[in-house]
Amino acid sequence: MLISYRKKLLYSGLAGLAMAIAVVTAWYILNQQEDNHVERVTASTAFGVEALLSKDIEGRIVSLSGLANHWQGSGEAYRAQWEVESRNIYDAQPGYRTIGWIDPSMHVRWLTPVSGNEITQDFDLRLNRPAFLAAEQAKESGRLIFSTPLESVLRGKGMGLYVPVYDPRSKQFDGLIGGLLLFDPLLQTAVPQGLLAQHDIVISVNDEPVYSSTSAEQPVRARHQQQRRFNIGNLEWTVALTPKQEFLQLVHSRFLTIMLVAGLILSGLMALTVYLGILAVNRVHQVGEVADRMAILFKNLPGMAYRCLNQPKWQMEFVSEGCQQLSGYSRSDFEDGRVSWRDLIVPEDRDLVWERVQQAVLSDRAFELEYRILTSDGEERWIWERGRPTDMMNDDIVYLEGYMADITGLKSAETESIKEKGLSDAIVKSALEGVITVDADGIIEAFNPAAEEMFGYASNEVIGKNIEILIPAERRKVYWKTVEDYLKTGDRQSSISGNVTYGRRKDGSQFPYEGSINQIEHQTEQKLIFLIRDVSNQRAIEQEARELQQKLAHTERFHTLGEMASGIAHELNQPLTAVSNYMAASRDMIDDTGPDIRVILKEALNEASSEAIRAGNIVRRLREFIAKGEVSRQIYPVAKLVEDAATIGLVGAREKSIDWSIDIDPNSNNVMADSVQIQQVIVNLMRNAIEAMEDSPVKHLTISASPISNGYTEIRVEDSGSGISEEIRGTLFSAFSSTKSNGMGLGLSICRTIVESHGGEITAEPGSNGGTIFRFTLTQVTDEMSE
Asked: What is the C-alpha to C-alpha distance for residues 502 and 702, in angstroms, rounded to an integer?
């Protein structure tokens, strides 16, 4: 049958209409498919960004919490160790601008790194309201708190993380461990750039935009935009992803290609089928890539991510690859129901864990737990878990999603720290020395049993009080000056170590002690430890020894005078005889009143007076020499010490045909000395020299004094005797060592003791003329010492 032109036209029109309808239908279907594809890819990418951000920030939570736990567990934080640990976190988790410790007054004290962050050193958090509010909330709640977005003083938008720490002994607030995260480097680190190659991203925290991959001039397209809202800590995050124009153009170009093929080829159904098949494969491939990325992400987590029903057995619907390392069981063991998580929890912890989780579910909040599990091989491990309830299906079914990590190592370190602290406390309690700990204001914080015995106070009577109650009132200024000097120098060993000072007992009596100061480092405030040793018995023994020495020296002086008795009598007889002669002549001439006689009489009386004074001086010096008094050191000219000693020491020398010379250097300074003791040394050396020259053909004694280096004056006594043998010289200054047949051997030993007590040194050496030279030194008195 021939078809008319109109029918042909009608059929053509109907065919064209059908084709148009088919094309429009195909266009509509394809357009819907492309929209759905774009939305699925965008939603999957948004979920991936959420997972990556959550994982990254939760990892930072674990790290900072671990740093805080270590602080609390150790009881004292050494700064070098803190810097190492904080630097490890800073290097391992890029995105931090700085990690620091904030003291209880909300001032930033320690920083990692310091370089580039100098402006934040000692920064007062109260000047940045979001940071201060978050820090206060962390302090009040006792848990980690994020600040709302803030403008950092270091320029850049970010947020703060604040973990409170507490003193393990007093349980008082001890500051915060804080970290400043800048959003740009955080997100560039946490979210791989390849994941966002096809999308623009805008991230908001508490509805405040904090990051955008688009410029301010580029409008955000609402179509195809996908959002994910989720909570991390106390903040609500929003991730908004919009396909980039290039991605949409790519998809649209594919759509136009299909339309062109469908329009040009009437048999486009086959081509369209092939094309759609290829497109479907591509979509599967893309979805597979996203799944692979998520699988890699979960596999590389150090712990285990999970999702389970909130039921008593906590049957897992999903676990990450970390389950094998964490528990010893595989993913299939959990996901196929062969192992339930509740069965792994040790029986003692199960009820408490269930109760805590149900409380979080009822209040619709996140939970954080620490408990123990038994692995597949029976090993007990400590687990840290952080999770949250979520409705995956409907209101009747509650799922739990979260993350678990092995903290057995941290718990072991905490236990060891507690043991070490117990050992340290035991050592302090059993120490023989008094151990007192005070803060920078001098408030006593610790007082061991030895200190209780020394001061007469019980520890509860002094703890919390100022250390001044243990210091005599007249010595308190010296104490504070000593502490101030010590803190300025930074020397770990105080300059007072070994020096003797005095403490005040409860009954008001004082006692001498040797003390040292050390500073405890890395505390929130300065603390000082005083080590005190009571030297009362030692001082009493030293005082007894000094008294015995003085008695021995006094006895030796009497012995010396006994040996010099005849010489002394001769020395006194000369001036007394002269006085007698002068007085007798004056008596004979007193009746003659002539002017010449009066002149002669006056001269005779003057000579008699001079001889009487001479005799009096000899007696005075003898009395001073044998006097038994307290040791009294004063400033004396060297010349006077030598001359006064020569008056006694040279008694009888002329009768033994000994000549002498005294040579005092005019530059010899004054010395600080006890005149009687030093004169005893010089007299002893002179008498020994005189005795040594009795059988010598040449009898000459030289006494000299001159300044030497290092601020000393040297006094020398040189004779022309027979000298001292090598055998005797080694023990010459030892007690009971003597070269005399009737000597006691104490003279030179006493001389050495006297010289060394004056800070000097005495030696003997062969003389140039065959005799012996004795030398001893005394400390010179400078102008400052004189003043």
From this structure: 47
Q: Which two tokens stand for residue 80?
A: 């070098």
Q: Token digits for 193?
A: 């750039």
Contact criterion met (CB below 8 Å) for 162 and 235:
no
**Among candidate residues 160, 156, 149, 88, the one with its CA nearest the CA of residue 125:** 160
| Residue 675 pLDDT class (50, 70, 90 cuts) | confident
Residue 628 has pLDDT above 50, yes or no: no
**Tens digits of per-residue pLDDT, 510-569?**
888 887 777 776 556 778 888 888 777 776 666 655 555 555 555 555 555 555 554 555
Helix H or strand E segment including 730: none
Six token digits for residue 260: 């062109």
Question: Which amino acid is it at 122?
Answer: D
Question: What is the residue type of 127?
Answer: L
Residues comprising the chain, all counted: 787
Top pLDDT among 40 and 613 is at 40
**pLDDT recorded at residue 569:** 55
What are phi and psi for residue 662, nearest 5 degrees? -120, 120
Residue 345 and residue 372 in contact, taking contact as beta carbons nearer than 8 Å = yes
- 3-class SS string, 99-132: EEEECCCCEEEEEECCCCCHHHCCCEHHHCHHHH
Residue listed under structure tokens 């009822």: 362
- Measured distance CA(459)–CA(451) in Å, rounded: 8
- Residue identified by tokens 């929130």 is 524
For 227-231, what is the mean pLDDT? Answer: 89
The answer to whether 113 and 87 are in contact (CB under 8 A) is yes
Which value, in Å, is the radius of gyration of the alpha carbons in the chain? 50
Residues 6+ apart with CB under 8 A from 444: 436, 437, 438, 462, 463, 464, 465, 466, 467
What pLDDT was estimated at residue 553? 55
What is the pLDDT, as a whole number, of residue 355?
92
Report strand pairing: 700-708 vs 659-664.
Answer: parallel
Bridge partners (DSSP) of residue 81 are none
The closest of 645, 636, 732 to 683, measured between CA atoms, is 645
- Residues whose CB is less than 8 angstroms from the CB of residue 227 and which lie 6 or more positions away in sequence, other chains included: 46, 238, 239, 240, 241
Structure tokens at 14: 């109907």
Task: State the pLDDT at residue 53.
Answer: 86
The pairing of beta strand 157-166 with beta strand 150-151: antiparallel
Interval 475-488 mean pLDDT: 77
The answer to whether residues 162 and 178 touch, using CB atoms and an 8 Å cutoff, is: yes
pLDDT digits (tens, 9 = 90+) for 522-537: 556 778 888 888 777 7
What is the sign of the dihedral through the CA atoms of 627, 629, 631 and 634?
A: negative
Residues 6+ apart with CB under 8 A from 467: 436, 438, 442, 443, 444, 479, 530
Contact 637, 677 (CB under 8 A): no
CA distances from 591 to 284, 585, 588 (A): 157, 11, 7
Residue 669: what pLDDT?
Answer: 77
- Give per-residue burial for 736-754: e unless 16+ CB within 10 Å, then b: eebeeeeeeebbbbbbbbb
Asked if 41 contacts 224 with a C-beta cutoff of 8 angstroms, the reply is no
Q: Write the DSSP symbol of residue 655.
A: G
Tell me: the pLDDT tens digits for 388-418?
998 755 656 888 999 898 888 888 887 777 7
How many angstroms separate the Cα of 677 from the Cα of each of 261, 747, 775? 127, 12, 16
94-120 residue pLDDT tens: 888 899 989 999 999 889 998 888 888
DSSP state at residue 694: T
